[in-house]
Amino acid sequence: MSTLIARRCYISGRVQGVFYRASTRQKANELGCAGYARNLPDGRVEVLAVGEPHAVQSLLDWLWRGPPASDVKFVEVQELPLDQLDDVPVGFAQR
Fold first, then answer.
1. For residue 37, what are the β-bridge partners?
2. Percent of residues, the chain, with pLDDT higher than 90
3. Max Cα–Cα distance, the chain, nearest Å
4. pLDDT under 70 in the chain at which residues?
5. Cα–Cα distance, 84 to 92 (Å, whole number)
6. In this structure, what DSSP letter does residue 88 have?
7. In this predicted structure, what is the pLDDT of residue 82?
């Protein structure tokens, strides 16, 4: 039986207007992670990643790099118990 984990991440730096959300969605789909990436009013991007531990960790590692035009300064990662989600996402959305 597989064990899913969830992480909520806040990415700071030049991460809006540089295809960060679209690139995150593409990487998450490659890794089999569900969740979303969305812009926040303060200039950060929020990412919810749900999946197998190794897949989520691979996505978190990638968040530090991002697409070529981005300049990631910091990634804050919060562990999120699955039972705190309203529903477990299916697929990865760009919001």
1. 47, 94
2. 83
3. 40
4. 1-2
5. 18
6. -
7. 87
Report DSSP letters for 10-42, one per residue: EEEEE-SSSSHHHHHHHHHHHHT-EEEEEE-TT
pTM beyond cutoff 0.85? yes
Sequence ranges of the domains in the chain: 16-82
Q: What are the catalytic residues?
A: 21, 39
Phi/psi-derived region of residue 33, left when phi > 0, alpha when psi is between -120 and 50, beta in every other case: beta
Structure tokens at 33: 């992670």
Q: Is 35 exposed, middle or buried (0-12, 13-18, 19+ CB in 10 A)?
A: buried
| CATH number given to 16-82 | 3.30.70.100
